[in-house]
Amino acid sequence: MNAKIFTQFLAVMLAIIVSCEAVAQEVSDTITGQSLHEVVVQAPKVIRKADMDVYFPSQSAVEYSRNGMQLLHNLMIPSLSVVEAMGTIKAGGQSVQVRINGREATIDQVKALLPQTIKRVEWIDNPGLRYQGTNYVLNFIVANPTLGGSMQAEDRQALNTAWGDYFVDSKFNNGRSQWDVGANFKLTNKVKSHRDYTETFTYPDGTSLTRDETPIGGHCDNTYGRLWGAYTYIKPDTTIFYVEASVAPTFSDDYYAKGRMSLTDGSEDILLSDSHGDHGTTPRFSAYLEQHFRGRQTLVVDFNATLYFGKSYSDYLEQTTAPPVATLSDIHTMIKDRNQAYALQANYIKRWKQSKFTAGASYTANRNRSRYENLEGEVFHQHQDKVYLFAEYLQRIQKVTLTAGLGAQFTKFQFKETEQGNHFCNLRPQASINYRLNDDHQFRLSFQSWQSAPSLAQTNVAPQQIDGFQWRIGNPHLKTSNSYQLTFRYNFSLPIMEVSLGVRAFTSPNAITPILYWADDKLINSYENSRGLQNLTFFLSPQVVLIPNWLMASGHVQYRMERMRGTGYKFYNHNWSGNVDVMLTHWGFELVGQYVRAQHHLWGEKISWGENLTILQLSYNWRNWQFGAGVIMPFGRYDQGSKMLSPWNTNEQHLRLDMSMPYVSVSYHLQWGRQKRGASKLFNADASVEKSSAAGR
Hints:
Blueprint: H1 3-23, E1 38-41, E2 46-49, E3 53-55, H2 59-63, H3 68-75, E4 80-83, E5 88-91, E6 94-95, E7 97-100, E8 103-104, H4 107-111, E9 118-124, E10 137-142, E11 148-158, E12 163-174, E13 177-188, E14 191-202, E15 208-235, E16 239-263, E17 270-293, E18 297-320, E19 327-351, E20 355-372, E21 378-397, E22 400-415, E23 421-438, E24 441-452, H5 456-459, E25 464-465, E26 470-472, E27 481-494, E28 497-508, E29 512-519, E30 522-529, E31 532-547, E32 551-566, E33 569-586, E34 589-597, E35 600-603, E36 606-609, E37 613-622, E38 625-632, E39 640-645, E40 649-657, E41 661-673
């Protein structure tokens, strides 16, 4: 970087700090990803921007897709794992925030998109301050269709178990107005499962006890739905008004395990049953207004309100095996929640030819009421308030694009009954520099920071018994944790290949993590602000066109080294993870193979891992129909679990599900008349309602 560029960069940073102070009374979260300079890559239709990668769907990708989720998979974006059968979108084992025209959306709403209306997909792997610490953002840009209405329906059903996914959505238009109604139902009913589990407890006096569990049986339930209705008014280039009401019931989200437990102290074997889960309903309302003014200025206001009515439970039973049967532990926890969340955001955006300034403010309120049936109906109230302010500036200088910003977050929570609580204020700096060597090579260095406030479960002081001598008690003295991330990424293009590689360094010096300690004869599971987590990740994400218009592959592989320190411990973890997708298309057929290796993540004194998956699927398109058949886990063994490293409780748990499931799918879509696009929200106020979690083993 020459002296002139360096001087301009310092000027930009100074302008940001001054702007932050000037708008600190009226600021917070922000706008759609829109950068000012781009690099066109000829092979796959990809545009490398300073703050995102933009993918343009090819004609074949659209032809072989019947909804937005299928189109996303057919784009084969490197580093992105899209498992359509499971309804998940992840990157590097982490969650991805999905948006439609800048408005935060659900997987159901992505499914409802017509592939012909999706003009481009924006992949943002270093989200700005407006996203408030989100790991990744995927934004679908949808243009005005030419039809006045559409109807989509999809049914996916397993052949050997009660598992399925059912979806329908319709849109109707009249002038500048659009009405949208839809529903989704996901069925998982008593899928056979068991767990492999062993644990060793060490007492303060140095003695120990090992309990080894032999599985007898069990099952998993996860059945839920969502019903929504929305209205949109669009006056092009001037006004957008959007309102939506939805209700999302969770009919059954339960896990049940039964086993025989042997003990090393010579005691009689124990029969145990362990079940936990939750049921409830989540109504939601949102309203959005976007107004454009002269001079390329935009004002955006968004409001969200979410309620939750439900219950969380945990049942744990230990009995002797020889007659007469005696009950050793009989623990029942039942928590009934009536919780609320409200969020309001306002953003101001000003654009110039080579720069952009964004400022915003948001307020989020959580009001939680929990009734503990096992504690004689005792009621606990928790209030949590967050205020977030930020300002961000982007400037292009020849081949260099600079972005810098500063955010501030104030968080406060309090328990009404005990008057315990805490409050804290944190700054959130963020900056990035992007350099384009030429059309085929791009370098990006970005710095991100964010804060994570303690959750309801982590701060709730109500004691919950887990088993015969384990209890869970929250810590009301927790403070907001800070996270900092530095990422270097290099993107390059070849005639048939797109490659992204880089390294990411992360630290959270006061991460909120679980902690175990003995109090008299009870082993307490609580939470602390630890001494920090640090990790270093190397990653490689290629996309390869093996046979043009026939065979394509993409994938992501990463290797992570991490260290976790807390009260009385220091642990290390090294592992690799990733995903591979291969897609063969011809004559209306599409054959897809997927493999996902889950990341093993160290957090506190525990290493946990998600699902390792393999999927094969064959589909055929005919007119407005698509017929498909596939198998989940045709190879390998399903495994999801954790390993506890605490000196007081060393255990290892593997959840095994009967996931070798063949399935069939049928989808249909119909379009008619003149149609408008959905609302083009620039951002979305987050009003995520919290709920209690009954402690389980």
